[in-house]
């Protein structure tokens, strides 16, 4: 394998593009280690698919696009994790707060607001949101169940989350409460 022409071409490509791709990934991630991870993962995926990708006319452009997309995916994942952590931090802060009893007493009010927010969604948005967030379905599973395309489900979810955020912000609830819906909502 190490002496095969495709491996040698892959090795040359790796050595010639690695630094440039790391710099490109760093421009998105602002973290050297994360940038290197993205580039290495991209090259691993390239090697796994190298037989299908042999006819790509501009492999350099393909690599830069793949690194860009993978960097954006990492940023999205980090953003989601940070938002979830903020929700748990908010819960922890309210538990440590001297007025924690007051917050605990307000929990039914929060639940009521979340129920109202969901009830106020347009019917199709509400149905998609219920499937994806409360029943834990993937977008594809919800699409199959509801007879929609996965992209349509994704669009409805985006719209539902936007409307829920707007509704909950009117009452001063942290938007991160949406990440905690499974805690509040029995299935």
Automatic annotation (TrEMBL):
Residue ranges occupied by any RNA polymerase sigma-70 region domain in the UniProt entry: 13-79
Entry's Gene Ontology molecular function annotations: DNA binding; sigma factor activity
Entry keyword set: Sigma factor, Transcription, Transcription regulation
Pfam families: Sigma70_r2 (PF04542), Sigma70_r4_2 (PF08281)
Single GO biological process annotation from the record: DNA-templated transcription initiation
Gene3D superfamilies found in the cross-reference section: 1.10.1740.10, Winged helix-like DNA-binding domain superfamily/Winged helix DNA-binding domain
Residues annotated as domain RNA polymerase sigma factor 70 region 4 type: 112-164
Family: Belongs to the sigma-70 factor family. ECF subfamily.
Protein name (record): RNA polymerase sigma-70 factor, ECF subfamily
Taxonomic source organism: Chitinophaga ginsengisegetis
Species lineage: Bacteria, Pseudomonadati, Bacteroidota, Chitinophagia, Chitinophagales
């Amino acid at each position: 394998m190490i002496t095969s022409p495709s491996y040698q071409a892959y090795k040359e490509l790796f050595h010639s593009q690695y630094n440039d791709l790391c710099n490109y990934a760093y421009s998105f991630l602002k973290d050297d280690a994360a940038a290197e991870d993205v580039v290495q993962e991209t090259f691993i995926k390239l090697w796994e698919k190298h037989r299908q990708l042999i006819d790509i006319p501009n492999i350099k452009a393909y690599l830069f696009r793949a690194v860009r997309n993978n960097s954006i995916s990492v940023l999205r994942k980090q953003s989601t994790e940070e938002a979830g952590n903020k929700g748990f931090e908010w819960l922890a802060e309210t538990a440590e707060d001297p007025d924690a009893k007051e917050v605990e007493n307000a929990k039914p009010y929060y639940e009521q607001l979340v129920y109202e927010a969901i009830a106020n969604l347009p019917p199709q948005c509400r149905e998609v949101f219920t499937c994806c967030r409360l029943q834990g379905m993937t977008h594809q599973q919800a699409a199959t169940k509801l007879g929609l395309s996965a992209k349509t489900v994704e669009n409805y979810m985006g719209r539902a989350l936007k409307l829920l955020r707007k509704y909950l912000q009117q009452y001063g609830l942290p938007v991160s409460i949406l990440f905690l819906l499974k805690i509040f909502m029995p299935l």
